[in-house]
Each structure stands twice: as C-alpha cells, then as structure tokens.
Amino acid sequence: MARSAGRATRPSPSACSWPRNCWAEVPTPSSPSWGWTRPEMAAALAGLRILVTRPSGQAAGIIERLRALGAEVVHWPALIIEPLSPVGEDRSRLADWGDYDLALFVSANAVRHARPWLGGRAPRLAAIGRRTAGALAEAGLSPALVAPPPYNSEALLALPELQSLAGRRLLLLRGEGGRRQLADTLRARGARLDEGACYRRRAGDPASLQPLLAPLPECAMATSGEALAALEQVLGARRAGMDLVAGGTRVADRAEGWRRVIVAEHPGDEAMTAAVLQSRQDIGKPTA
Questions:
Q1: Count of CB atoms situated within 10 Å of the CB of 282
Q2: What's the CATH code of the domain at 14?
Q3: How many domains does the structure of the chain reveal?
Q4: In whole angstroms, how large is the CA radius of gyration of the chain?
C-alpha cells in the first residue's frame, strides 16, 4: 500500500478531539466505572460498522467496548487456534518445567494450551504482555516479568533481566511457526533455550466472512501479521474501500491496499478502541 493512498497515523492523546479522555482505558458495561452519565459516550461510534478479527474466545472484550460506544460490530476469526499435543522430549520438558530458570509465554494462547501439560512447581515466569499475564493469572500463575507496551518481543527483550543469560536454562512456550526474533536473541545472549510449540494457527474460513461484507464495514481490525495476511487474502480488492486499525507499527508496516491505516499503540483492547475513537472523524471517508 502506498502511504500516500493510506497513510499510517499513530494516535496520540493530544490529537483526540472527542472524548477528551479517549486515550485512557475505555470503560465497558461490566467495569466498575461504567455509567450512562454521558449520553455522547454511547453514541461515539454510532454509524460505524467495524469488523473484528480476533480468534474465537478472545474477541468478547473488544466487541463489548465497541458496541458500548455505539458501533455495529461483526466478528470473523481471521485465525483459528488449534491445540497441539506434545510428544517425546517436548512432553518431558513441559512436565519438568520447574527445572528451568525461566519460562517465557509468547501469548495468552500459549498459556491456555500449555497449561494442561505443565507439571510440578512453576519456575519464574515471563509474559509478553498484559493479555498473556492475565491468562497466567487465570491459570493461578504469577509472572515475574511482563513486557511493557507495545507488548511484543522487542519490549520483552529490552527488560534488564534478559540482557545477560549465559548458562541460564530457559523454556519458550509459543505457537507453531511465527517470528524467530525472540528465540534467536535469547540464544545469542547465552541462554540454553528449549522451545515448546503448544498450538498452531490457520486461516479462518473465507466463506463465513462473505455474509458480513454486505454492507462493507467502514473499517477492520488486525492485531497480528498472520491475522492481517488472512484478512487481506479474503478481502482482496474490497479492502481499498475500508480503513484498517492495526495493532502496532509492525502490523501496519505489512498492510497493503487499504484506504487508510490507523496505528494503535499496541494490540490490546483499550488501545485498539482508543485508536478508533481518535480517528472517528476520518474513518470511512476518502483519503486526500
């Protein structure tokens, strides 16, 4: 995508025209702070049709936020998450994971699909972001290290505790395939790293998306490069009539052929919602 045809813009607090607190976490009906004290909040995104592409079981939060702000939301899982059953050495590593100095989880999916195979006491834990840390908490585990925004491999690798790893035994729990930067960098810093793939991703069903495209949504959301690729494959040239809300610059840099690309600070629900609010006046309109 030529940037002149769809310029990537990073939301900022100072750019918000309404609501003034749009960069703060947007409340939901289930949050303690929710109240219909500002009628305009319930209509902030009225008239917008938004396509959410998070996997099934992981989209309820963002859908709730957007609908509470008045948007019409349709959901198509761009990726299907399938668990993998570890065998051989992989199964032994998970059963004896307490022998490691540190276990790192790259996603909430890694937590959910590795947890049934983890035995004994837990080692120190690291999470790639808040969603992953939340999944660990739900599993009764507490991470010692959590990557700060934008909640990615680079942010995790920047933590002081991961700079010098000579001789330390680390276990990386991840999905099949995916980026190699985290594993390669940990090994380059001296870690004795083992990896365990506990789930795989495959593209969502194209046929199930077609009924959701009439009428065509004004914008779509993508929080990972894999989800973006699956979405672009199915939409084809139709995405030229849609805006994309990308979960970070790495996702935005891979986007091609969209009317406009809006860059959220990170792929979390609050940042994705804030990016839509900040850009509300532009979404759905032709670019200059």
A1: 14
A2: 3.40.50.10090
A3: 2
A4: 20
CA 121 – CA 109 distance, rounded (Å): 21
Task: Supply the DSSP string of the chain, one letter for each residue.
Answer: --TTTS-EE---GGG--SSTTTTSPPP-TTSTT--TT-GGGGGTTTT-EEEE-PPTTS-HHHHHHHHHTT-EEEE--SEEEEE----HHHHHHHHTGGGSSEEEE-SHHHHHHHGGG--SS--EEEESSHHHHHHHHHTT---SEE--TT-SHHHHHTSGGGS--TT-EEEEEEESS---HHHHHHHHTT-EEEEEEEEEEEE--HHHHGGGGSSPPSEEEE-SHHHHHHHHHHHGGGGGGSEEEESSHHHHTT--S-SEEEE-SSSSHHHHHHHHHHTTTTTTSPP-
Residue range(s) defining the domain that contains residue 31: 8-78+205-278
Is 211 inside any structural domain? yes
For the stretch 178-223, pLDDT in tens is 889 999 999 999 999 999 999 999 999 999 999 999 999 999 999 9
Residues 6+ apart with CB under 8 A from 131: 107, 108, 151, 268
The 10s digit of each residue's pLDDT in 48-92 is 999 999 999 999 999 999 999 999 999 999 999 999 999 999 999
